[in-house]
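haha ok so turns out i had the wrong file open the whole time. this is the CORRECT one, sorry everyone. sequence first:
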Amino acid sequence: MDQLTAVWEWFMMESTWRGSGIDPGILVRVYEHMSMSLQAVALAALLVLPIGLYIGHTRRWEFAAISIGNFGRALPSFGILGITFFITTALDVPGILGFWATFTALFLLAIPPILTNTYVGIKGVDADTIEAARGMGMTEREILTRLEIPLAAPLIVAGIRLATVQVVATATLGAVVAWGGLGRYIVDGLARGNDVLLLGGAILVALLAIVTEVAFGVLERIAAPRLTSQKKRVVAGSRSGQLGPAA
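then structure:
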């Protein structure tokens, strides 16, 4: 109880949030953490979403998509970070020590769930509906953008959610290679023997991961009913000879 009381008092201190001396506060650390995480996920999504859409739509390179997903899940996050830190240090990459190593590791970690969910979501669209769309004269681009992507969107968003939560949690390890973020509290707490700093940092990381999970969960719930009703309109339209989402 004494430790929890001390952590609570630490959170109540103004200097904890705003920083004091050379130590930045929680607000700065949260910004560093989320900025790094969101940039890594955004870049991964920008690069692999089109690849996942192509593989799911054309059914080509499926084995490669599955292999990348399985390989990415098998690699330990700390191992990826260690390899990227060694490479960036050996190449003398300019910038803040540990920044590019952490960013590269998080970027690589975000790729498998986004690629796999996008590919599986597009591939999982009902084949009869797609054939009916082709029979109605829709082009491949129209099938992808007006039919497959809307129906697969919940699974695609779930892949981005999974990638973001993993990246937010793993970004904590960036402090091990001299980067900042919330992991700095944990590493500094261990180095100084400061249990309050260590426990406070762990709580902050857990809360940030939970908030990220909940935020994406709300996004999925908002989108899902709309997409479900749209899917019903598509099926109803195909029975009446009109395929495609209602305007």
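Residues 131 and 143 are 10 Å apart (CA to CA).
again sry for the mixup
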